[in-house]
Amino acid sequence: MVPKRILLNLLLILSAAQAMAQFGKNCELRQFKVNLLNPGLEYEMALGVNTTLDIKAGLQVALDPLLPDVYKEFGFRGQ
Asked: What are 44-70's pLDDT values in tens digits?
């Protein structure tokens, strides 16, 4: 079993590495994306050095789980 002191030191080292990763500019000024898999558009704008505002609009398809036969929504005949 690994001593608690070694685990604590490892946790501190990993935390420090994560904290250093936040320095510098980490986001684009303005970014426009098109999603083809789930049709939609997305606009992302930088508010600060590491802060963004993200606006999304898209289409999604869902089945009604309360219907007894959800495949009738697609026009399939249940057997």
From this structure: 998 887 788 999 999 887 777 777 776
* Helix/strand/coil percentages in the chain, nearest 5: 30, 25, 45
Tokens of 54: 């993200």
State the residue for tokens 């999603």.
35
Is the pTM higher than 0.90? The answer reads no
CA atoms of 42 and 56, how far apart (whole Å): 4
47 closest CA partner among 67, 25, 17, 66: 25
DSSP string, 36-50: TTTTEEEEEEESSSS
